[in-house]
Write a structure and sequence with these properties.
This protein is α+β, with helices and mostly antiparallel strands and 108 residues long. The protein is built from three helices and five strands. The chain has helices at residues 42-51, 57-70, 80-96; strands spanning 3-12, 15-24, 29-35, 72-79, 102-107. α1 (42-51) crosses α2 (57-70).
Length: 108
């Protein structure tokens, strides 16, 4: 997490006071993206969206159709560590279930 320091000089009774404050920046966000392929079933994609991304059944179905029609869809926004962890976990889970689902994460 990047931090910025700034300095304030004030005159008080002939003395210089130096005040430093640290400001914490929000961590950069990463978008998790599901990509279309010809082998992963639509039901499996809905399952991934409901179980790993906590989407409602309706929202998961809409996102699955977007992936199917447009080739990919953004399915979540997370800090880098969480996004990368989701990619690894879901890729591994998909392979264990015989699905070649492609998932990626990229900076917002």
């Amino acid at each position: 997490m990047a931090q910025k320091k700034f300095r304030v000089d004030e005159q008080e009774s002939g003395e210089t006071l130096v005040l430093e404050r640290e400001q914490t920046e929000e961590p950069r966000k990463y978008v998790v993206i599901l990509h279309n392929d010809d082998f992963t079933t639509q039901e499996f994609v809905v399952h991934i969206l409901t179980d790993f991304f906590h989407k409602s059944l309706s929202e998961a179905h809409q996102l699955m159709l977007k992936v199917h029609r447009e080739g990919k869809a953004k399915v979540g926004l997370y800090t880098k560590d969480i996004a990368e962890t989701k990619v690894v976990l879901i890729s591994s889970y998909s392979r264990q279930h015989g699905m070649p689902l492609l998932i990626s994460a990229e900076p917002e």
